[in-house]
Amino acid sequence: MRTHQHRSPVTALTTVRNLGILAHVDAGKTTVTERILYTTGTTHKRGEVHDGTTITDFDSQERDRGITIFAAAVSCAWDGHRINLIDTPGHVDFADEVERALRVLDGAIAVFDAVAGVEPQSESVWHQADRHSVPRIAFVNKLDRAGADLDSAVASIRDRLHTVPLVVQLPIGAEDAFRGVVDLVRMRALVWADGADAYEEGEVPERLCEEAARRRRLLEEAVAELHPAALEEFCVRSELSEETLTGALRDLTRTGEGVVVLCGSAYRNRGVEPLLEAVVAYLPSPLDVPPVRGVLDGAVQERAADPQEPFAALAFKVNATATGRLTYLRVYSGTIRKGETVLDATTRRGERVGRILRVQADRHVDVDAAVAGDIVAVIGPKAVRPGATLCAPGAPLVLEPPTVADPVVSVA
Ligand code: GDP
């Protein structure tokens, strides 16, 4: 029996991650995105930034293909999860677009350069993400570069971003000899052989045992200081089990009290698989974030991420493509089916949704319906503008931008 056919859409929502990648220009956002698409099997060839074959960046090849050049969100599958990667423009000129992207994503990877550490742009986008209470994990990239230094990058995360870095990996080998990491949560070595895309897991090398134990201890102490249940276990056993540590790291990520730090070299495709594992383990699903708020007849309403609620979605990007005028939606509540007419609460116009598309790196996949929590593109709406709310005609409301005071994350 194939169980996924029997799973309710609400249960399936726990396997969705609406994810953004935030970075200073040149830190490696494009390369990380590219490797995620490659690692998840969305693309079958590794694109290289310098040879013009990357899938998510703007270039003439993509203009010819006419799809991903404009993709505001790309879906990929990983370990039973659907990851919707939402594009967050790195350039300050697109501040409105960044704001809208931050509104629709539930979590983000912040990418830093292991030589430069935290740079001004990453600092400003980090604080923007703070205002939207977007849970984040950090990826210190380019560990293969001469001068790469994880510890000083971590120090700059602590000092410039005013957060508590929770470093969960110890690099194995440095600069050109960077080969893998010790996973400090599971105390296992993950090593990439030359040219390999997948890591091989093994014992922590003897010469690193002491240092790995020391760093695991630092991680446990940092976590216990912030997390009451972890503190209790730490006091009783003077160490943390893998289970407690993982649970505490997830909670601290979601409250924003700490940031899990991973490292690697996206260019060499070392570290991307553990990064995806961390996305699934620590970042929230649409069900883990509080109900979105909207205004209906002057009164504030809440809409839960439930397919049975009245339909409400935010249009966060509109693109003219060869396939048609694509309106990208984050569905917050309810269900939308192909052929239905919805209300644009901003223009008060009815808009018919002719097609619903899931955008993958190299193709559009037609689907019949989209439910709360999902990110899709629709074709049909003619006058919807970015920032507009689309809703069920019988239950109109305008989705409110979250305010700083909103408790955006709840921890079970
Ligand atoms: P973006 O501007 O943040 O999208 O950064 P890119 O992904 O375009 O990368 C900027 C430059 O850094 C490119 O020349 C990449 O090839 C290079 N780069 C990206 N990741 C790595 C890495 O892990 N190691 C090294 N040495 N270079 C990298």
From TrEMBL:
Residues reported in the UniProt entry to bind GTP: 23-30, 87-91, 141-144
An annotated Gene Ontology molecular function: translation elongation factor activity
Domain called Tr-type G: residue spans: 14-287
Subcellular location: Cytoplasm
Domain of life assignment: Bacteria
Keywords, in A-Z order: Cytoplasm, Elongation factor, GTP-binding, Nucleotide-binding, Protein biosynthesis
The keyword Nucleotide-binding belongs to this UniProt entry's keyword annotation: yes
Coiled-coil residues: none
Protein name, entry field: Elongation factor G
Organism: Streptomyces drozdowiczii
Designated gene of the protein: fusA
Residues shown, of full length: 1 to 412 of 695
